[in-house]
């Protein structure tokens, strides 16, 4: 059982690092938080103070408890060897710095010079290989992926990603720590996008495809997936919210990481938005226009069209979840948990697939593959076998 006396280090005090530091401090840990930029560190400290003021105001914490939490965080300016010596007592250091392999490898090498040999080196990377991070380290067995979702204090899911080099005890310790922070943890294989960022790709990709084929416009597809699908946001409003720079980069990295498997093919339409600087809400324009006075496009509220849209996107999502289980990326239970807690899907995709009928999902994919000749619609072997066996998609047995 992990104990709250373990000192936790966090490097990178941006959106994710500041949130992760807050989570660890909230569970009683002394936390060391560093950033290469003083301004980022100052923003993180101000953010923590504001968050604590809100906790006190909402009477979720006493002022004393909030002050004690803040006092447990030490802010370290810079990442020179001297500055990093503050991490010497840490049992685990989580990096949440810029998403660049060479920069993260350099940081891990520097941390290894100051950490105890059994301290864990964890990465919050969204898209890089954990094995590639471990490859740069002297003690490769201590490197593990610990992937939080944004905002870390609010989102319950943490994906735990052991690399081929990771010692099982390190995976267990990292998971036990996140569990002790009352996170929902799932185990994911060290493959592009891990669970959530891989399985969620068709929500964007297939919706973009429907738009490109002229099946419906953005407003109609969004409306269909919200009202008939039950998703909290439609794909186009969600992409505008996330930012096309970030969303396209994730798609691109999964596509490249999968050696250009057509299932994950990015969309030219989205690339053009990015090139034009129409990044979404943050730039005032994406698929939608956020300028003051701009009128919102009106969806075509046709229930037959809506069902057609939802069926196609869902068939792709269910297939992706089934394939993730088939390839051992995650367990049946973990793919259900990951999609409902990481991206708030209204139902687990395997459960949903059973409700629609796995044979219907298979038939839809086969007809799309036949009509388009596009391999992006190829059904997972596991889907075929589960249908043949008349079993549930949630059947945990291997169908290999
Ligand atoms: P961010 O840009 O908000 O923060 C990154 C911070 O790292 C900045 O404050 C920067 O000054 C600092 N930094 C850069 N290089 C550094 C170095 N060598 N040493 C120390 N500090 C350094 O980025 P964000 O969004 O917090 O992402 C951080 C990591 O978390 C990335 O690996 C990203 O892929 C991952 N991630 C991001 C999520 C998100 O929704 N933003 C979700 C889950 C993971």
Describe the structure.
The mean pLDDT is 97. The protein has an eight-stranded mixed beta sheet with strand order 3-2-1-4-5-6-7-8, with helices on both faces. It has helices spanning 15-26, 38-57, 63-71, 81-84, 101-112, 130-134, 168-180, 196-199, 201-212, 218-228, 235-242, 244-257, 268-276, 303-326, 332-342, 349-356, 358-372, 381-389, and strands at 7-11, 31-35, 73-77, 90-95, 120-123, 143-148, 157-162, 184-187. The radius of gyration is 22 Å and the shape is globular. Helix 1 (15-26) crosses helix 2 (38-57), helix 2 (38-57) runs antiparallel to helix 3 (63-71) and helix 14 (303-326) packs across helix 16. The longest helix is centred in the last third of the chain and has 24 residues, at 303-326. Strand 6 and strand 7 form a beta hairpin. It has 18 helices and eight strands. Helices cover 50% and strands 10% of the residues. It is of the alpha/beta class and 400 residues long. Bound molecules: 1,4-dihydronicotinamide adenine dinucleotide. The site of 1,4-dihydronicotinamide adenine dinucleotide has 25 residues, from helix 1, helix 5 and strand 6. The site of 1,4-dihydronicotinamide adenine dinucleotide (NAI) has 25 residues, from helix 1, helix 5 and strand 6.
């Amino acid at each position: 059982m992990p104990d709250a006396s373990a000192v936790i280090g966090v490097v990178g005090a941006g959106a994710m690092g500041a949130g992760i530091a807050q989570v660890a401090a909230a569970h009683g840990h002394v936390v060391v938080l560093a950033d290469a930029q003083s301004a980022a560190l100052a923003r993180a400290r101000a953010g923590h103070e504001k968050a604590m003021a809100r906790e006190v105001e909402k009477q979720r914490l006493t002022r004393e408890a909030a002050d004690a939490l803040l006092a447990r965080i030490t802010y370290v300016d810079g990442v020179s060897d001297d500055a990093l010596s503050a991490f010497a007592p840490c049992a685990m250091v989580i990096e949440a710095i810029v998403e660049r392999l060479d920069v993260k490898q350099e940081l891990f090498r520097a941390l290894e010079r100051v950490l105890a040999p059994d301290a864990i080196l964890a990465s919050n990377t969204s898209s890089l290989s954990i094995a590639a991070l471990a490859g740069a380290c002297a003690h490769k067995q201590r490197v593990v992926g610990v992937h939080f979702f944004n905002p870390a204090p609010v989102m319950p899911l943490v994906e735990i990603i052991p690399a081929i080099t990771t010692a099982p005890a390190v995976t267990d310790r990292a998971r036990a720590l996140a569990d002790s922070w009352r996170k929902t943890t799932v185990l994911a294989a060290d493959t592009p996008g891990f669970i959530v960022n891989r399985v969620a790709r068709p929500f964007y990709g297939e919706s973009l495809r429907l738009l490109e084929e002229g099946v419906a416009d953005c407003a109609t597809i969004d409306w269909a997936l919200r009202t008939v699908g039950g998703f909290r946001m439609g794909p186009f409003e969600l992409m505008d919210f996330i930012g096309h720079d970030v969303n396209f980069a994730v798609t691109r990295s999964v596509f490249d990481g999968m050696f250009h498997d057509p299932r994950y093919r990015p969309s030219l339409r989205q690339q053009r938005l990015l090139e034009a600087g129409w990044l979404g809400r943050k730039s005032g324009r994406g698929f939608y226009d956020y300028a003051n006075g701009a009128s919102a496009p009106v969806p075509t509220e046709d229930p037959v069209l809506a069902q057609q849209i939802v069926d196609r996107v869902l068939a792709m999502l269910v297939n992706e979840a089934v394939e993730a289980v088939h390839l051992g990326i995650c367990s049946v239970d973990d793919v259900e948990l990951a999609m409902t807690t990481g991206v708030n899907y209204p139902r687990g995709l395997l459960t949903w697939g059973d409700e629609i009928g796995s044979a219907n999902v298979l038939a839809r994919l086969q007809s799309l593959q036949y009509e388009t000749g596009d391999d992006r619609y190829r059904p997972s072997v596991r889907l075929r076998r589960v249908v043949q066996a008349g079993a549930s998609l949630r059947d945990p047995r291997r169908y290999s």
